[in-house]
Design a protein that fits this description.
The chain is of the alpha+beta class. The chain is 45% helix and 17% strand. The protein has helices at 43-59, 67-90, 97-110, 115-124, 129-149, 158-170, 195-213, 218-225, 246-252, 306-321, 327-334, 356-364, 395-425, and strands spanning 32-36, 39-42, 179-188, 239-240, 264-266, 269-279, 287-298, 345-349, 374-376, 379-392, 428-430.
Amino acid sequence: MKFRMWAPALACLGLNCITPVLAQSARPADHIVAVVNSEPITNSEVNAEVQRVTQQLNQQRQPVPTTATLRTQVLDRLINDKAQLHQARETGIRIDDAAVDQAEQTVAQQNQIDVAELRRRVTKEGLNPQRFRAQLRDQLTLSRLHEREVESRIRVSDADVERTMAERLAENADPFAQDINLAQILVAVSEKASAEQAAGIYVKAKAVLDRIRAGEGFDKLLLEVSASDRTNGGQLGLRRADRYPPAFVNATQSLGVGEVSDIVRTGAGFHILKVIEKRAPTVYTQSVAQSRARHILLRPSAQVTPAQANERLVDYKRRIETGAATFQAVAMQYSQDGSAAQGGDLGWATPGMFVPEFEEVMNRLAEGQISNPVTSRFGVHLIQMVERRRVDLSPKEVREIVRNQLRDMRYEEAFATWAREVRERAFVELRDSP
């Protein structure tokens, strides 16, 4: 599940930020700038998001687009989010209060504060806690929608996996084994575009490429024409090349750092790629670091709030660390998980077996160390790292890793195509300022 949490200005509180999606009521001096399936987007909503993004870019020391450009980007993202939320509601996706409680607890714990302090900071930033919780609910709704609608589109066959493994093993210098970071300028093409329309858009993309090769800055043209995310210079991130679309790797494998590719055509449109970083290929991974941990899980309910569960786990940790009880004994007595009978033992686990919010904390623990309470989508945990080891992967495990890599490679293109389809189905009315 690709869950991305958003927090208001608060420098995003160190979290990954996405656009807030809560509809706001127009104040008397405000006006509506767009309507999406009968839901308004107000000028104040756009202004607030422009201010938040500007603050975030300044804190990250990234170039800030002009106000007009940034407003256009923000409005476009708000429209997409509202269109997707409309689809979620139409298809019956609902997020209950318990899930929002856990999400709020996660935001607080990731920033090493309690929920009361989180709400105080949210209020200080001008967003009341009820509105913040509504935004969290929308984030969870979108995450569930993306999991159902986008991931279900991705198909990786056994033949795909076997072919990819054979290709990697056969090549001594596999370009898909190196780590690369690419930036892109995307000139989008609608799935419904005719051949003539696509040809016209290609001419536009070629003109952009010609300007870059004539000496104009990639970053300048990115802000001017790209239909993809323009923050952080359009960078897609340093990762193994096999997590990029194959067309991207093929177009850039012979390029040096700083060089720009020819035009690459995908289902999303025409891409111009710039190589930001390359790291030498590594031997194909056939071993993996495994972790063995224990945990105690408390599930919040009508009788036990997340805060109360957190307090109980803090007490359990104190008792264990002072020698009053063992972790195994406390887990067997109190943990609300199937591992309780084994003293909370989760067995040997490979990366990716646990949900990210659990695994990220577990990975930071030294052997024998016990975490502070950790909130996940399943409840509140106390984690103890028992030991770590490195083991060779079985052929089945190697195939599963390759399968997941292929799914990751295909996710971004599947998401872009799906999001465009949702946008095209939505009723969108843009309104001029009064």
